[in-house]
Amino acid sequence: LISSATKSLRMETEILEKKLQDAQMKLAEKDGDKEKEVQSLKRLISDLEFQLTMEKSNNESFLDKLRKEIKHKSDELEKLTQERTQLIHSLSQVQEENSLLQDTVRRECEERFELTAALGRAREQVLELRRLSGTLP
C-alpha cells in the first residue's frame, strides 16, 4: 500500500515537475520572442523618429500620422511588458503550488509510514493475545 501510494505520489510529482518545466520553457521562449520584438519595436521607433525629423517641415499631417503610430507601438510595448509581468507572476504561483504539493506529499508519506508501523504493532499485539488466549484453559 505504501509502495503503491509512494509510486502514485512520485508519478504525480513527476507530472507536476514536467508541467513546471514546460511552463518555464514556454516562458523562456516567450521572453526571448518578446525581447526580440521589443528590440525590433525600438529600432522601428528610432527609424520613425528620424524620418519624422526629416519630413517635419514638409507635411504637418504626415507628422501627426507618425506620432499616432509611435503611440500605438509604445502602447503595444507596454502591453507586452504587462504580459511578461503576468507570466512571471504565474510562474511564481506555479512554483509555489509545486512546493506546497511536494510538502504535502512528503507529509502524507510520513503519515502513511507511521500508520503502517502502528498497524504492524497492533497486528503483533493481536497475534500475541490470540496466542496467549489459546494457551489459557
Automatic annotation (TrEMBL):
Keywords: Coiled coil. InterPro entries: LEKR1 (IPR038799). The keyword Metal-binding does not apply. It comes from Gymnorhina tibicen. Residues 63-97 form a coiled coil. This is LEKR1 protein. It comes from the Eukaryota.
